Amino acid sequence: MRGIRIRALHHGNLRTDYDVLVTAHPRYLLTRSDQSKPRIWCEVPSLTYIIEHPDGNVLFDASVHPNWEQEWLPDYKELAPWDDHTPEQVFEVALKRAGYGPEDIKYVFISHLHTDHAGNTRLFAGTDAKILIHEAEYKGVANLPQDQNFFLRCDYDVPGLKWTPLYGDQEILRDVYAISLPGHTWGTMGLMVHLEHSGTIILPSDAVYRKESYDLEHPSMISLDPEEWRRSLRKLKLLARNYDATIVPGHDHAVCHEGRSPIREEERLRLHPNLYE
Ligand SMILES: [Zn+2]
């Protein structure tokens, strides 16, 4: 649709063992004839998106909080530290540099409640922004007795946030749809946006970590339910085929396609990771 733009913000990189993201990838498994393959400490970009829409701005995810070193559980600071970012890439600073404050956002769409996606949701406490989350995700964390892996109370147990549950696939604004993609967590959701020039863009968040996760249908050890994750991936591929969509993975700069008329590579390089329109 005319008048919608997606701006991507890059908040530096977490780092982790590649095996955490694409677990037991055959390329890196040791074999009888090759036991010399390296392990890979890889960059994991933290990305958020502002969907600028004539009826209001939608923020997709909220990146890592600057107090991560104090807040994260020790094992997870070791597993996937956010130790590669500049002061300008900190979410609140990057949002401001893009021309926005928390009061300019109508909907904060939280794909799931892992702290590297929900870390700055607290900035929207006391604003009019509706915080969109799948009901199953909210119920999932509500049942945790304490902080657990990447789920931290300081991200969601915050007074003044207007949590608004979603129950499945639904239209948020014209040509902007929430898509239910459970498996990575209880209620992981993605966003599908129909654009005038770039066609259909799907932001699947961690339902697709990397291009290889999508192309090889290879799950991550972090996935709560690998079978459900696979079902969600099939759904995503069906959507991608039906809409000739471009899939922008949660933690990769490469993109995925199914359809016959994807964004051409040179156009992608011009637009991504900063802008789709
Ligand atoms: Zn995640």
Assembly type of the chains comes to single chain
Bound molecules: zinc ion
Along the chain, the helix and strand elements come as EHEEHHHEHEHHEEEEEHHEEHE
Number of strands: 13
CATH topology: Metallo-beta-lactamase, Chain A
The amount of helix comes to 10-25%
- CA gyration radius, whole angstroms: 18 Å
How many H/I helical runs? 10
How many structural units, i.e. domains?
1
| CATH class membership | Alpha Beta
Distance between the termini: 9 Å
Q: What percentage of the residues does DSSP assign to strands (E)? A: 15-25%
Task: Write the topology of this structure.
Blueprint: E1 5-17, H1 18-21, E2 41-52, E3 58-60, H2 68-71, H3 74-79, H4 91-97, E4 107-109, H5 115-118, E5 130-134, H6 135-142, H7 153-156, E6 162-166, E7 170-173, E8 176-180, E9 189-195, E10 199-203, H8 211-216, H9 226-243, E11 246-247, E12 256-257, H10 265-271, E13 275-276
Parallel strand pairs: 3-4, 4-5, 5-6, 10-11
Antiparallel strand pairs: 1-2, 1-13, 2-3, 7-8, 8-9, 9-10, 11-12
The structure holds zinc ion.
Verbal overview:
The structure is a single chain. The protein is an alpha/beta fold. The protein has one domain (5-276): Metallo-beta-lactamase, Chain A (4-Layer Sandwich), CATH 3.60.15. The chain contains ten helices and 13 strands. The strands form two sheets. It has a seven-stranded mixed β-sheet with strand order 6-5-4-3-2-1-13. The radius of gyration is 18 Å and the shape is globular. The mean pLDDT is 93. The structure holds zinc ion. The site of zinc ion (ZN) has 4 residues, from loops.
